[in-house]
Give the backbone structure.
Amino acid sequence: MKQNAGGALAAVFAVLALLACYEEGTLARAYSLSNQRTIESQDRASQLAPLNAVFWRERGIVRLNESPGTAEQYLKRAIQLNAFEVDSLVGLGLLAESSGRIQEAEDYLIRATTLSRRFKPKWALAYFYFRQGRFDRFWPAASAAANVEASDAKPIFRLANQVMPDLEQLGDLLHLQNQHALTGYIGFLLEQKGFAGLSRVALRIRPAPELRPLLLAVVERLISESRPEEAVQLWNHLNVGSRIRPLSPATGESLSNGLFATREGRGFEWRHEDKEGIDIRAGVAGDLRIEFSGHQAESSTLLEQFVPVVSGRAYRLTFNYGTDALNGATGLYWQIFQGNMSIGPPSTPIIPVPEGRGSLAFRTGSEVGLIRIALIYKRESGTTRLEGTLMLRSAALELL
């Protein structure tokens, strides 16, 4: 008897295993059909798995425009099968609104937001209040959507900006409460021009490594808009805890990376672009090597840095360098610029010596808070194009 009972149990388990395999295969077939996104494939998917709410929801969604009544019927069936089918609730809300059942639409959308922490239902509710012109309800809904973690909230920022064009007030009305919301808002603000509060928002973002590119983009924007004080403040915030010395133009700390150590080439850093015939490589700190093949352009900017300064003051740039196999007159010199206009004469040309030192004195204008220091190559008349290597050891900027 025990042996027979054991055999019967084994047979039951075998049948259950076969049924599970069959159901799993059927469900996989249903999902494959649903992914085709056609009316026919969605109908067939829900027929294969009639108790699966997902397929009834997708069956309704593909009919939203062509057959709203049928779509509503299928979405309601999805809710019957799964009361937490949030996307179906959103669809029912939109259908109710389109047919003039405004209170019913609001009820569906509010229910969706209470069941889900995702961005989509909160966005749908905010957009509903926007369309209805109910802005007292819009702002709390928009704030809830903007503060959803792990979402792209730019659609809500753009929508809210239509209601409140003033970007300063916009951020306050949205009550951005977490780092994700703030970084998303910064991304949106970088699409705008000349927003006075850009650095104020950026300073609320912690200087984490993964957020460095975004904050550097803000520093770049502030530099491009000639807002050096804000750019310096954010630059120092960005580099808290690093080996990069904070900038302080008032006390003479204006030049960054005087040893030419390799870094990003953004913000208040040395920058250079790849140029044909010129190879710029960093060795150890204090040994930035610039190699000339003799096939480079006749003139180009090799290296440059934006530098915050005090207006109406005298400065001296000093630099140490070495050369290897440079031929004759190098055509290499340093120049100071405000925008595209040079401030004073260039430095005397760099000469071919194993170790050399040079300097350049200049005075900033009465309203100059940002300059650009550049190393330039320009072939001198009557000479061939430069060949050999320039090694930059160090540079310093002294406030006199």
